[in-house]
Amino acid sequence: MEGQPQGPPDPAAMENGTEHRGEEFPPEAQETTVTEGAAKIVFPSANEVFYNPVQEFNRDLTCAVITEFARIQLGAKGIQIKVPGEKDLQKVVVDLSEQEEDKAEVKEGAPGDQPGTAAVGDICEEGLRVLEGLAASGLRSIRFAREVPGLRSVVANDASARAVDLMRRNVQLNDVAHLVQPSQADARMLMYQHQKASERFDVIDLDPYGSPAPFLDAAVQAVSEGGLLCVTCTDMAVLAGNSGETCYSKYGAMALKSRACHEMALRIVLHSLDLRANCYQRFVVPLLSISADFYVRVFVRVFTGQAKVKASASKQALVFQCVGCGAFHLQRLGKASGAAGGRVKFSAACGPPVAPECEHCGQRHQLGGPMWAEPLHDLDFVGQVLEAVSANPGRFHTAERIRGVLSVITEELPDVPLYYTLDQLSSTIHCSTPSLLQLRSALLHAGFRVSLSHACKNAVKTDAPSSALWDIMRCWEKQCPVKRERLSETSPAFRILSVEPRLQANFTIRDDANPSSRQRGLKRFQANPEANWGPRPRARPGGKAAGEEAMEERRRLLQNKRKEPPEDPAQRAARLKTFPCKRFKEGTCQRGDQCCYSHSSQTPKATAEATPTDCPEAPSQNPLGPGAASGLGID
């Protein structure tokens, strides 16, 4: 057997000639052991940034996806994988050409040429090379090594020396040092160093704090041909439309505030990935795109092909959304049409698809995107993952939720971007809300297709035009009339209801209106199991996280901060003078009377209601050097 693959060199070791051990943990710190899946990790209890139980679903799903990806990749090489809990070695379904099938039939009779088997925890020389760019404690990489078969090596990288030290301890604790190589490096530089085809990774997993935008350019170059790229985005406030200009700066698209914001977030991330891959004659093929909890997660394969890259423009679309009734229309950026000789001709698309004012309510349109307008998932691959998880329910702690989410995904209309919601339709015209089955039945009776969306529990994803949808809602309003005298003549509700429906809706419940996942009672949309179920705070210098009480107080102070009127400068100056100057206490403040904080020893202690988070005082030069405190205000 060949030697174990070596991890990337430590940048500090290359510079200094010695291994950089990083900052040691305080000996008095109490350690906490966490068990998740087949992995066990140890971390200081004060350092909560190293583990977030909310992300267990994310990690379980990633293990399931990489397992099936390994099954496909190794199956093409004649290697079968053995997953703990599976009754028998499942056959690998691979598309083979006729010649490959003939060769396989010839090899069946030779006992020495039987396909090999890749087991969990063993090094597979033909297996996958995995990179976790931002590994923290190394939990995800350790789970890969202990739960996913068919791996050649796993590089667990982090820029923090403190995290790498913790990672080394956990790797030794779980006996996976032969598979997992801890690495301390900038994730971008590490991926840029693996651009050569022979050095690329088969799987790259990126799960940063916030936006992965700084890492995407390097990631699309460092993943192998047909390799798997797994990306998590937790900056949902940006992707959901709260800051469209920030979304454009990070992802190259304008996000809109809409009921379909979570699916639009997925499509914006896919657009950004494809756009960056196109720069290097590469393109992405989505396998699975998930919106869950407070983040979105996409699994895409990356391929190279100049001809296929030309079709990328026709896969993107702008979104015209009415600010009154919420009706939306898509405008493709490019147009692909057939030409003589079976060739495909690409040209600019024609538009726009809407008038300056909405045809239903007369309001203006907002323009969002570009976004990915093709299917979000490979339904064959999703079905393969769903079948494997259902056949082995004891493998993952969140298997029940994985089954529910993937079942809803298999029921989604793949060729229909975005969706409406029940409450959006009814609140627009101020009427009572029809049941999910009634609205779905009306659409099915009218000859349209309709489905749910895993991103929203009351979503209505349909290929019906907005005019047909509003006709159905007009018919529903006739059963529960709205008092017209209470409606403004310029309101969307008045203008929509003033038009007689051309389509007569039938709200009789149909059997096929109730989706299978709903009938079986699967866990499709999980409620938060505990309070503050969400992302952890960003790590502070040294790796320690803020306490739970401090985070609660900060959340309270930041509530409605944009809705509050701006504070009067004089009142603000007087308020800040109630806080003692931290630098004055340390003897390092050089601003004197110009300091916005108080230098008096009689200054009363400030309350939490007036925490000074907005002082414009610029940091002055610290004569004590970088080791002295440099923060402003109070702790």
TrEMBL record:
EC assignment:
2.1.1.216
Classification via PROSITE patterns: SAM_MT_TRM1, ZF_C3H1
Q: Domain named C3H1-type: which ranges?
A: 575-602
**Compositional bias (Basic and acidic residues) at which positions?**
552-570
Keywords, sorted A to Z? Metal-binding, Methyltransferase, RNA-binding, S-adenosyl-L-methionine, Transferase, tRNA processing, tRNA-binding, Zinc, Zinc-finger
Pfam families listed in its UniProt record: TRM (PF02005), zf-CCCH (PF00642)
Highest taxon of the source?
A: Eukaryota
InterPro entries cross-referenced by the UniProt entry: SAM-dependent_MTases_sf, Trm1, tRNA_met_Trm1_C, Znf_CCCH, Znf_CCCH_sf
**Care to name a GO molecular-function term for this sequence?**
tRNA (guanine(26)-N2)-dimethyltransferase activity
Region: Disordered; residue ranges are 1-34, 509-575, 589-635
Locate the compositionally biased regions of type Pro residues: 1-11
Which stretches of the protein fold into C3H1-type zinc fingers, per the record? Answer: 575-602
Task: Spell out the family assignment given in the record's similarity comment.
Answer: Belongs to the class I-like SAM-binding methyltransferase superfamily. Trm1 family.
PANTHER family, per this entry? Answer: N 2 ,N 2 -DIMETHYLGUANOSINE TRNA METHYLTRANSFERASE, TRNA (GUANINE(26)-N(2))-DIMETHYLTRANSFERASE
NCBIfam families hit by this protein: TRM1 (TIGR00308)
This protein's name = tRNA (guanine(26)-N(2))-dimethyltransferase
